[in-house]
Amino acid sequence: MQAFDRVLAARAKDRPGCADFIANIFDDFVELRGDRRYGDDKAILAGIARLEGMPVTVVATQKGTCTGERVAANFGCAHPEGYRKALRQFLLAEKFARPVVTLIDTAGAYCGLGAEERGQAQAIAECLTTLMTLRTPVIAILTGEGGSGGALALAVADRVWMMENAVYSVISPEGCASILWKDASKTEDAARSLKLTAEDLLGFHVVDSIVPEGAGFDKAYADIRSRLKDTLGALKALDVKDLLSARYKRYRTMGGFLG
Amino acid sequence: MLKKGLFKRPGNTLEKTQGDNVLPVPNVPETLFTTCKGCKAAVLTNELAQNLYVCPRCGYHGVIGARVRLMRLADDGSFEEWDAEISSADPLLFPGYADKAAEARVLSGEKEAVVGGMMRIQGCPCAAFAMDSRFMMGSMGGAAGEKITRLFEKAAQMDLTVIAFTLSGGARMQEGILSLMQMAKTSGAVKYHSDAGNLYVSVLCNPTAGGVTASFAMESDIALAEPGALICFAGPRVIEQTLRQKLPKGFQSAEFLMDKGFIDAVVPRAQQKDYLGILLKLHAKEHKNASV
Ligand SMILES: [Zn+2]
User: Fold this and answer.
1) Which domain holds residue A155?
2) Surface of B (187-246) touching A: CB under 8 A
3) In-domain check, residue A255
4) Quick check: B118 and B126 in contact, CB under 8 A?
5) Interval B115-137: pLDDT, tens
6) Which residues pair with B223 in a beta bridge?
7) Residue B230, Cβ neighbours under 10 Å: how many?
8) pLDDT digits (tens, 9 = 90+) for B230-247
9) Domain map of chain B by residue range?
10) How far, in Å, from the CA of B54 to the mean position of ligand 1?
11) Assigned CATH class of B64-288
12) pTM across the whole model
């Protein structure tokens, strides 16, 4: 599959959303709402659930499944309130030593007046610093679109996994083609150049493992469930200091430079 | 934005080639007058340089190179550059990137969009870095991220305050996902420095956008900004295209952000040294390593 085909697959309307992942991977999901500061952003779905008996905090993006839901969820593009809602759940997870699992499928953080004036950048930045030193294991799973900073805000983790047809990029191929080459027809070139597929990201060690989709999503859910159980078990066994120092190193080594 | 060739191309070893007390001004003007972007008046280029590239008529804060900014902030001869050798790689072999980066190196006279090191401000030691808009709009790739990360780490080990002049279009898209990861990497370093009890002051300059605003620029203990600076996550053009509406005047300006509670103070360039000096003195502590 070409890079841009992956982009289309990741965006496909009939692709399972994060809510489907939650329903099929976890038990007893209890939704918790609001950021306690301004409102409840439905682009973020958060709560507590069980994974094979183990309580975990789940924070996911949500695109919605019908028009009404999509509009309510702003098509999966969170406002600052969404990131602050996530923050609240991260801190609650830390308090109760619950591991965090995030599920990400968003074109990116919302670009709008309200989002800007209520501190979209600050909200994302606070997620980054908070997750970087959150004293409990964090696993992030990119299920569909991983759109730039809006995705990264939920993806600073001890392990980052990616669905086979998910994409994760600093900018959309459309945005890249229009800014760099001022040419919308170069979108497919941009998709290829940006190296945004799961295989690419595995190669860069941005992603630790790929979840196959070939045998269908039911198989994938079962796969994720068992991997989560094993990996969270192993991460929970670590001393928090070691966990955090490994997380720091995970990102510390990313990126190329000369000199 | 500066037109190419408007200023002489500065060298990269100014501090080494000049005496300690000589103030290097790499932006040696070739033209007598410069048109102010704020009031459109023709201003004597020399006068503009003396005035830290702030228009003496309307106060418009123009482009100032990262190195000049730091040199003129530091007490005379106190700036010691760190990690000067680091420059960007091309990890994705992105079409056209190598040429663009080479052009940026010539245009800015810098190896990367970030210049940083250690200095004294009114006698107080601190670490400081500045970003340079002439280097691919100050965008952050692996080299910039590495320089910033190292600076926070080293400052933490030395118990030094960090002062950051942020100025960036955001993540450098030619480095793809690895540039996005610099947001996480630098955020980790900011937190490490902060958890060790050190002060971090950011000064948001025009423009600070995207992944830089959404990481270290907004992670400071005290956030200052230059007058009129555009500070945003999504740029005005992106929002206007998304919403198909014009933005209100002054939206996303430094003053607007201060009003909304995201900036502590808007500080004109000429007052920054005094302002930062006061903040440094208010946070003074016994330094393990007080020598600069
Ligand atoms: Zn003027």
Assistant:
1) 3-244
2) 187-192, 194-195, 210-211, 213-219, 232-234, 238-239, 242-243
3) no
4) yes
5) 999 999 999 999 999 999 999 99
6) B202
7) 20
8) 999 999 998 998 888 899
9) 29-60, 64-288
10) 8
11) alpha beta
12) 0.93
